[in-house]
Amino acid sequence: MSDAPGALNRRDVTRDIFSASIGSVACCYTGQPFDTVKVRMQTNPAAFPSVMFTSKTILSNEGISAFWKGAVPTAMGMVLENAMAFGVNEALKRTFPDDAKEDPTKRPDLLRPFMMGAITGCFSATVLLPSEVVKAKTQVVVGGNEASSTDVYRKMIRKQGVRSLFMGFDAQIMRDAPFYAFFFGTYELNCYLFRTYIPTMPEELNYFLSGGFAGMLGWTAAMPFDVPKTNVQASWNSRVVGSYFPELIRIAKERGPLALYTGLIPTVLRAFPANAALFLGVEMGKKVFDRFVWP
């Protein structure tokens, strides 16, 4: 890696990681309560049938801190995930630049970000998987017994070894590829639309709104793939590859196709503030980096 211009020059890669880390922490602690509610609803819909009931039950039985169960591995995972995701996505944009972006009179290629997003998802899934498995198993623990992510991690290693960290690899790919396609694709589309039709909008507000809507659309597209993924990774009997499609078929047969959208409401509610904070943090992180870290 060198400082010369290119997709992987040292300054640009450092900038990608720095800005993604800032955005990741903001995203994690903004969205974690919604994610905990979603996981409870997905893995035990009989006990947790609605957003309000689940939220009240968690608050009354386990306290407010329970909403942030698994936040530490999630934050660590998000830093790694987003460093990979934004890093790969930015590297792809530098490798295959859209010349129209340099000319305000031309409309940018709006399909390209969707394709690059799907490729990004395949890379980031590999990095995210271990923390997702630990988080899923931690969030479904009710009460205080073995509720910490450290205890869950130790139990996983003790029972199944290192391979336990990679359970549901196929499930992660199936969720992340469509998610990132819409995530990065609609973010670029939203930014373009806001700049075109509301040119007076401040850039910071553009980042915030575009990121929030991108998160909502990304999760809506990925939700049918997320429900079986969560069940596979929360289970202690899953395999590295091969458990995802049987679980997908089982849910559709037993509970109907709409069951694949279980937890959509808390997920979408979480998606806007969490991803608005993520993209705003990333874009502001770039400006801080350019001004103070590596001018």
What does this 3D model show about the protein?
This protein is an all-alpha fold and 295 residues long. Helices cover 73% and strands 0% of the residues. It contains 9 helices and no strands. It has helices at 10-43, 51-62, 71-95, 112-139, 149-160, 169-197, 203-234, 244-255, 264-293. The chain is globular. The two termini are 19 Å apart. The model has no long low-confidence stretch (mean pLDDT 89).
Blueprint of the fold:
Elements: H1 10-43, H2 51-62, H3 71-95, H4 112-139, H5 149-160, H6 169-197, H7 203-234, H8 244-255, H9 264-293
Helix pairs in contact: 1-2, 1-3, 1-9, 3-4, 4-5, 4-6, 4-7, 6-7, 7-8, 7-9
Q: pLDDT average, as an integer?
A: 89
- Report the sheet-strand fraction: under 5%
Class based on secondary structure composition and strand pairing:
mainly alpha
| Computed Rg | 19 Å
List SSEs in N-to-C order.
HHHHHHHHH
The portion of residues assigned to helices is over 70%
General shape: globular
In this structure, how is the largest beta sheet organized?
none
Identify the quaternary structure here.
Answer: single chain
Distance between the termini: 19 Å
Number of helical segments? Answer: 9
Low-confidence stretches: none
Number of strands: 0
